[in-house]
TrEMBL record:
GO terms for molecular function: DNA binding; DNA-binding transcription factor activity. This is LysR family transcriptional regulator. It comes from Corallococcus llansteffanensis. It holds the Pfam family LysR_substrate. The keyword Transcription applies. InterPro entries: LysR-type_TF, LysR_HTH_N, LysR_subst-bd, WH-like_DNA-bd_sf, WH_DNA-bd_sf, YidZ_PBP2. The keyword NADP does not apply. CDD domains: PBP2_Nitroaromatics_like. SUPFAM superfamilies: Periplasmic binding protein-like II (SSF53850), Winged helix' DNA-binding domain (SSF46785). Belongs to the LysR transcriptional regulatory family. Keywords: DNA-binding, Transcription, Transcription regulation. Signal peptide: none annotated. Gene3D superfamilies: Periplasmic binding protein-like II (3.40.190.10), Winged helix-like DNA-binding domain superfamily/Winged helix DNA-binding domain (1.10.10.10). Residues 24-81 form the HTH lysR-type domain.
């Protein structure tokens, strides 16, 4: 197998500057898209409803057509060649645009629409806002489905541009990228939370008690400091003891219910948990810088009626999820900002 792949590189034929689309079976482009996304013949075949042998035959045709191996064997399985990596995003964009052009439904009617939207976000947004979003979907668009993905900030610009992800809901700083636009949904502040019956916290949380306690830090990347640590350093105060770091928002409040740790977390998150769990909630004993929550999309979908409806749904779900005033600015191009 290694020899065969090497020969494909060594004996590849030149590719003309312009490819005659009239001579290409366009189904091969669908197969190529699946192969580039899966980097696995069997999974690519399942994605587009082909047999493994049919996908293998399509791969052979594509290799001959493009003069490149496209997929080669690596240590952990098949990997894309540099040429294949260059093709991935443009091909995905082209197929998405072709699907939109051929869609028979000229206008988006939520009440009768049957389609799926994909939103990329973290579990914080999902836990506090998705219930309201699903309630709105059930009432206004019962045929519309929603997929929620967890992606790293560095990957979502390409996913938005290709149309594989419709919308991402994140906190700044955001990854810069050509054609990305954003809309502020709300500003979130922090609260402190301990379990009810905590032996050291009765009627309030003063700074001395706060610094004496062991802390839980929500750190999606697993390192660095939080907004509290920045606030302490700015005031020349001693650092707190971070006894536990967790990457997920949903774990932290549950840990607090069974320990004597204190958690400083977004207000909306704690509001959702305090209704169901025995928690005491206090304002932080020192000012902690709030953060913004924004939705980001690609400008190619600015005027798309379905996408406009989706962005409006997310904005309304924010208001329905918690009775706080929203400060929603008009959309603007994304610029890189500094972390809080």
């Amino acid at each position: 197998m290694h020899v065969t792949m090497r020969r494909l590189h060594e004996t590849r034929t030149p590719v003309p500057d312009e490819v005659d689309l009239a001579g290409i079976n366009l189904n091969l482009l669908v197969a190529l898209d699946a192969l580039l996304r899966e980097a696995h013949v069997t999974r690519a075949a399942a994605r587009v409803g082909l047999t493994q042998s049919a996908m293998s035959h399509a791969l052979a045709q594509l290799r001959e057509l493009l003069g490149d191996a496209l997929l080669i064997r690596g240590r952990g399985g098949m990997v894309l060649t540099p040429r294949a990596e260059q093709l991935t995003a443009p091909l995905r964009r082209g197929l998405v645009e072709l699907q939109r052009a051929l869609r028979s439904e000229p206008a988006f009617e939520p009440a009768t629409a049957t389609r799926r939207f994909t939103v990329a976000t973290r579990d914080y947004f999902g836990s506090v806002l998705l219930p309201s979003a699903l309630e709105l979907l059930g009432r206004e668009a019962p045929g519309v489905d929603l997929s929620v993905l967890h992606v790293e900030n560095s990957t979502y610009p390409a996913l938005l541009e290709s149309g594989e992800v419709d919308l991402t809901v994140v906190t700044p700083p955001v990854e810069s990228g050509p054609g990305l636009r954003q809309q502020k949904l709300f500003t979130e502040d922090f609260v402190c939370v301990v379990r009810k019956g905590h032996p050291k916290v009765r009627r309030g949380m003063d700074l001395d008690t706060y610094l004496e306690l062991s802390h839980v830090l929500i750190s999606p990347r697993g390192d660095g400091v939080g907004a509290v640590d920045v606030a302490l350093a700015q005031r020349g105060l001693p650092p707190r003891r971070i006894a536990l770091r967790v990457p997920y928002f949903l774990i932290a409040p549950l840990v607090v219910t069974r320990s004597d740790h204190v958690l400083t977390a977004p207000r909306r998150l704690i509001a959702a948990f305090s209704e169901a769990y025995p928690l005491q909630v206090f304002p932080p004993p020192l000012p902690v810088r709030p953060f913004d929550m924004i939705q980001v999309w690609h400008e190619r979908f600015d005027g798309d009626p379905a996408h406009q409806w989706l962005r409006g749904l997310v904005a309304r779900a924010v208001g329905a999820a918690h009775p706080v005033s929203r400060n929603t600015r008009s959309s603007r191009r994304v610029r890189r900002t500094t972390a809080s």
